[in-house]
Model the fold of this input.
Amino acid sequence: MANAVGAPLKRKEDPRLLTGNGCFADDIQLPGMLHAVILRSPHAHAKIKKINVEEALKSPHVVAVYTGKDLEGKIGPVPSSWLVPDCNLKEAPQYPLAIDRVRYVGDGVALIIADDRYAARDVLDLIDVEYEVLPAAVRQKEAIQKGVPLVHDDIENNIALHWKAGEVAEEIMENAEVVVRESFYVQRVFPSPIETRAAIGQYNPGSEELTLWCTSQNPHIHRMVLAGVLGISEAKLRVIAPDMGGGFGGKIGVYPDEALIGYAARDLGRPVKWIEQRSEHFTSSNAGRDEVIDVELAGKRDGTLTAIRVKNTANLGAYLSTMGPGVSTIDFGLMVTGAYDIPHASCETIGVYTNTTPTDAYRGAGKPEATYQIERIIDLYAREIGMDPLELRRKNLVRKEAFPYTNAQGLVYDSGDYEKPLQKALEIVNYEQLRQEQEKLRKQGKLIGIGLSTYVELCGFGPSKVAGAIGFQGGVWENSTVRVHPSGKVTVYSGTSPHGQGHATTFGQIVADKLGVPMEDIELVFSDTRAISMSWGTYGSRSTAVGGAAVAIAADRVVEKAKKIAAHELEAAVEDIVFERGVFQVKGVPGQQRSFQEIAKSANMAWNLPEGMEPSLEAQSFFDPENFVYPFGTHIAIVEVDKDTGEIEWKRYVCVDDVGRVINPLTAEGQVHGGVAQGVGQALWEGAVYSKEGQLLSGTLMDYALPKARFFPHIESSFTETPSPVNPLGAKGVGETGTTASIPAVMNAVMDALKPYGVKDIEMPLTPEKVWRAIQNGEGN
Done:
């Protein structure tokens, strides 16, 4: 298919999924399947004095009950996969079931296996656990104070890590004409995918192979980690991720629950299924964000920024999750200068253990928090010196001619033209006229706010040497195999794990463009550790920039081999063969040609191949990029605040993103829309609330406010294109840009609306009550 890349094709996955023909975890039914439920702690911190399971075992439906003590010595702790160096990291072991002490509400206490899912849930009430409730450490800044209860007895002051990057000399801050200081809280939120987590284990005693179907964004990482936890060879563990209803980072992590299901299936010799309940999701699935960020921004009165100093106190929860240590350090701390040319920067992160559910990567993973603090403090700086926040941004943006640009923390931004999407967004909203209208409406008593967010984001998590240097326990290259069958139809194998992004469509477009075959002739195989030798999964907006690049390279290699076969058959030199629109022909001799399908047959039949050439037409590639990629852009939010109720009404939302080469504008726009929805959700509605005892008070969808479609305006999305030199596609990543940019855009808009009242900051989420109280306490009243 010619010109497939860049075409706005509808997703080829949709007909199967929309007609109910997908295969999600709970669709999997196996003969003799048992069902698992997990008894979870109702306390944030308590000693387990005694567990009595006798009544549960009397149930005719119960096959087995396991406690933490039952599993001692049989199953190991689940480790973190990001052991950040040079930060005095202290990792407490997280066993799949608590042994003598529970450390958060939702901590696993017992595993019940029964022949019926609902009977298994009924049995939960038959297990008698005697607890000695202990005081809890809940909020990170309090948890590091002396005298606060220790989450782990051997970890002093509950400090899991203390990381620093960069340095700002004190005299720079002292000599600055302007220093603006503020503390921001980026609250804890839950990924909340439409499908909760799940795991199904099946053990074959003959081959001694364990197959685990689980809702995983990276099956190979699950295999690598769980093989160690369960004490089996990776060759004997097959992990498959079926169709998934969303992940948003919450399914990156390897969880204790998955280890439990694998163990039970092997121990009992029967398939075991576990499906997480929605109520469990809020307490047992890893949360995101939860960082207190203290910022100092220094510069001159003319708007020249000279230094930024940041301290991040991050709530890591009761244990270190798979990615948790790196999110609040590397992902956050190296991006604190954002899209601006600020010569001096430092970041200090204190990661804190608390008696709460662990935190991990959530859409954007550290970059939304970093963007939030710089975009918010930029607006406050502009207010301090009386400058339009747009002009302050423009004055300090990294210039086009500066790329590749090394920021103050040592990251090399690959390419960019930050002014281009900014200018396009300003033209779309007619910024100057908009500001004039705002002044006119303010005189009429209407509170109109305009919020800008000019962002850059580290994406395409990929350079393995860098990954090793920053403590990530694995390589982050990608591999792909492109196999052409005798008919000319194509199967593509990729280790990325799609769960709503449209990989089958975008990767299909890459192959169709390279090989000149129709989209319907391309089959994609994902998410199976037996089908793909090794991969590092889907997260960090890396699927196209790294996984898609591997697909493109493999397809190019197929074409190179096919050219040699065509040259042989056409009795021409290889360099004289031209391949266009699925046809190989001799340059300047239109009649001398072979179709791609003819060459595919020749390669697979091997009747007449060039001397020394091996049969078949397939190629494998391993792509390890030399750098990250850095999408960027500008989002503008326009809101109206009702001064009598605090209600926020959307007027307009415009986003212009540069994600490098856009493979499919429709899927790219869909990713931006979804990201914006989750970012706006955090700004306005979402937020975990814990009591001082560590009880989650927002643990249901009645209490945790997810965004609803009726609250959103039409999102006006467009793109500019600055191809990345890092990968052969020029792609940069689009899955997280909407979230990264939208949170500060919305906050800046509301703070701009409340400017007449002198309101500078309100803790998210911006509920009507908080906004109303800020107005009442403001300078205008």
